[in-house]
Input
Amino acid sequence: MVTGAFTIINSTGFHARPAGLFVETASRFRSVIKVVNGKQSADGKSVLGLMLLGAKPGAQIIIEAQGEDEAEALKTLAELIARRFGEEA
Output
């Protein structure tokens, strides 16, 4: 298992569009992906689960990936977050 801590830096947090992009990206991998925000966790391949985390701008989330392509999955999801899910700065 690989894990990483990331700060949500886009201006609207984990709302529908970023959650959808996250799930679309995570679903390309075979690994199980879990996202943790505080005491809540969600399946990284569930839009509703991610939205229910309530991760607002500035929130620190933990991503855990476990499986044969875990390192690539974590790296790709980290890049998505760093690019602000394609939103303007």
Notes: The radius of gyration is 11 Å.
